[in-house]
Amino acid sequence: MITLRGLTKRYGDKAAVSDLSLEIAPGKVTGFLGPNGAGKSTTMRMILGLDRPTAGEALIGGRPYAALPRPLTEVGALLDAKAVHPGRSARAHLTAMARSNGIPVRRVDEVLETVGLTAVAGRRAGSFSLGMGQRLGIAGALLGDPRVLMFDEPVNGLDPDGVLWVRRLMRSLAAEGRTVFVSSHLMSEMQLTADQLVVIGKGRLLADAPVTEVIAASSRNAVRIRTPRPGELAARLAAEPMPLQVTRSDAGELAGDGERADERAGELIVTGAPIERIGMICHEIGVPLYELSPQEASLEEAYMELTGTSVEYGAGAPQKAGV
């Protein structure tokens, strides 16, 4: 388990991380999200003892990193895949790591096999592609068979097969009861990989919840309705006491005025009302339904909504040609 208590890092009058308190539990993949400059890398570096906190503490299994007698056997990390001597082979790099940390050298071939680098184990790391470098970094994290694992952008440079492999690896490590803490900018991949999400912005905690809860909290969640009497239903929904929004997305018939309904069903998009309540209203007023389906927000939409006021380095709208 990773525990953060009031973790703070200041550079002069700027707070890179501010009073961050949370627990990253074992047995699940915890995604670590936030805009550029939010403090993700600084947080990970403080957990690993690479940066000293201004205040607070970061603990791994109840102890700071510096107090771990054999760190690589307790926590493995991939923060920078380029942090490898380019003249060393993959096997030599991992062997040096193993010997300097009291890890059996037999683990080198085991992790090379795990990450798919056995065939190129004798090649210099400096000749590796970005994706191969990522695999070597992951091998280094796995070398000590630790119970806590941290990965910063682990799918960077990987092809689709490699991305799928990383996803399965993260899930399998968590299933073994390990703590898996992963940062990424790929929302679609986090939605498929993570169980829990920690979201920060401008150094402050914005969310610490299961992926499903983060998405469910988005105002972009809606209900799609297709009915031959959209106008009548829209008027009834507008009378509800709850704050909801009804949007017409078609040009069909508007009201139940006794005339024959248009054969083309009208479509409504409703936000702010539970689908169960909408179904009950349709039953009460006798409006037939061709479709009543939830339109769930994506993690990307929920994330953008959550961090909208925490983007430190935002880009302006693209200019038109010739402007």
TrEMBL record:
<keyword id="KW-0813">Transport</keyword>
<protein>
    <submittedName>
        <fullName>ATP-binding cassette domain-containing protein</fullName>
    </submittedName>
</protein>
<dbReference type="InterPro" id="IPR003593">
    <property type="entry name" value="AAA+_ATPase"/>
</dbReference>
<dbReference type="GO" id="GO:0005524">
    <property type="term" value="F:ATP binding"/>
</dbReference>
<dbReference type="InterPro" id="IPR003439">
    <property type="entry name" value="ABC_transporter-like_ATP-bd"/>
</dbReference>
<comment type="similarity">
    <text>Belongs to the ABC transporter superfamily.</text>
</comment>
<dbReference type="Pfam" id="PF00005">
    <property type="entry name" value="ABC_tran"/>
</dbReference>
<dbReference type="GO" id="GO:0016887">
    <property type="term" value="F:ATP hydrolysis activity"/>
</dbReference>
<feature type="domain" description="ABC transporter">
    <location>
        <begin position="2"/>
        <end position="227"/>
    </location>
</feature>
<dbReference type="InterPro" id="IPR027417">
    <property type="entry name" value="P-loop_NTPase"/>
</dbReference>
<keyword id="KW-0067">ATP-binding</keyword>
<keyword id="KW-0547">Nucleotide-binding</keyword>
